[in-house]
Amino acid sequence: MKTISTVLSMIIAFSLSLNAFSLGKLGEFKFEKVNQNVWIMHGPVMEPNKENEGFMNNPSFVEGEHGLIMIDPGGNYNVGKKIFAELKKVTDKPVIAILNTHKHGDHWFAGKAILEHYPKADSYAHPNMIKVVKEGGADLWYGILERLSGNLKGTKPYPYPNKTVNGGNTLTFDGQIFKIHHPKRAHTDTDILIEHVNSKTLWLGDNLMKNRLGGMDGSSSVYGNIELLENIINQKDGYGKYNLYVPGHGPSGKMHETIDPFLNYFKIILKYAKEAYDNDMESYEIKPKAVKELKDYYDWDAFDGQVGKHLMRAFSEVELKDI
Ligand SMILES: [Zn+2]
C-alpha cells in the first residue's frame, strides 16, 4: 500500500510540475498571497525576450467573497493563458473586473486570455489610455513585443478596456474598494495608480520599477515621476500609508525599500541634466559623470540602454522649463 501511495504522489507531483508556468532558467511562476486578499505573480525582471516569452510584469488579483478583480494581467495572449491556469490553481472564483494601469502592452495584452473565459467582466483604464491604444498605441506595442519575444500570436483583436476611470474615482466590486489616482504626467500621461483600501496595497504601475529600468516617451515626465513618488512617500495629494507597494516591474515591498531606489535614480538623472544645461553641455557629454554616480544601478536590467535616453529626456524637460 505504501509503495502504491508513494508512486501515486510521485505521479501527481510530476504532472503538477508539467503544468507549472515554467520559463527555463528563469524558473517557475505562480500566484502568491502577499497581503490580505491580494495575490501577485512577480514576473521576470528583464526586457521582453524569447526566454521570458514576453512575460515581465506583475499580474495581480484581489479576492472578494464571490469574485476576483485582476490588475495588469500581462503581456500577451499566450502568457495570459498560462497566468490564467496559475490563477485557477489557487481559486475557482470568476474574474469580475480588470484594472489596467497604463497604455503599454506588456501590462494589458494578456487581458484577452482572461476575457475569453469571463466576457462579462468589465475592463477599466484611464480615458487617455483607451484613446492612445485605439489610435495606434496598441499596434506600436504589438510590434515591439512581437519583435523581442516572437510570442504575440493570438493577441489580436486587442482586449481594449471598455470602461473609463479617472483620478479621484472609487470603484467597489464584491466589497473590495479601490481608490484611483491619476498623475497627469509621470511614466506616461495614461497612468492610474490603484489603491486597494481593504488591504492597504498600492499598485504604482511603471511609475515605480525595481531592479530594471524602462523606456520613456514624449508623454513621460522625469519631473512628474519624481513629484509623484515624493507625494506618495510624504502621503500628500490623496495618498496614504500602505502596507504594500507594488511596482510595475520588480519585487513588491514596504515603502522606502521599494520606492527609494527608483526615486533616487531619477533625482540623480535630473541633477546631471540640470548641470549639463547650466554649463552649456549636451546630455551625452555629462553622461560619463552621471553614470559614475549611478553605480548602485549597474546591475539593473536595461541600465546601459536607458540611462542615456533618460538623461536626454530630463535635459529636454529642464530646457523647456527654462524657456
Ligand atoms: Zn510602462
Gist of the model:
The protein has helices at 2-18, 77-90, 105-108, 111-115, 127-149, 222-233, 255-278, 283-293, 303-322, and strands spanning 21-22, 28-29, 32-35, 38-40, 60-63, 68-71, 95-99, 122-125, 163-164, 170-173, 176-181, 193-196, 201-203, 244-246.
Element layout with pairings:
Blueprint lengths: L1 H17 L2 E2 L5 E2 L2 E4 L2 E3 L19 E4 L4 E4 L5 H14 L4 E5 L5 H4 L2 H5 L6 E4 L1 H23 L13 E2 L5 E4 L2 E6 L11 E4 L4 E3 L18 H12 L10 E3 L8 H24 L4 H11 L9 H20 L1
Parallel strand pairs: 6-7, 7-8, 8-9, 13-14
Antiparallel strand pairs: 1-2, 3-4, 4-5, 5-6, 10-11, 11-12, 12-13
The protein binds zinc ion (ZN).
The site of zinc ion (ZN) has 6 residues, from loops.
Would you write up a description of this structure?
- It is globular, with a radius of gyration of 20 Å.
- A seven-stranded mixed β-sheet has the order 3-4-5-6-7-8-9. It has a five-stranded mixed β-sheet with strand order 10-11-12-13-14. It has a two-stranded antiparallel sheet with strand order 1-2.
- Helices cover 40% and strands 15% of the residues.
- It has one domain: Metallo-beta-lactamase, Chain A (4-Layer Sandwich), CATH 3.60.15.
- The model has no long low-confidence stretch (mean pLDDT 95).
- Helix 5 (127-149) links the parallel strand 8 (122-125) and strand 9 (163-164).
- Helix 7 packs antiparallel against helix 8, helix 7 (255-278) crosses helix 9 and helix 8 (283-293) crosses helix 9 (303-322).
- The protein has helices at residues 2-18, 77-90, 105-108, 111-115, 127-149, 222-233, 255-278, 283-293, 303-322, and strands at 21-22, 28-29, 32-35, 38-40, 60-63, 68-71, 95-99, 122-125, 163-164, 170-173, 176-181, 193-196, 201-203, 244-246.
- It is built from nine helices and 14 strands.
- It has 323 residues and is of the alpha/beta class.
- The structure holds zinc ion (ZN).
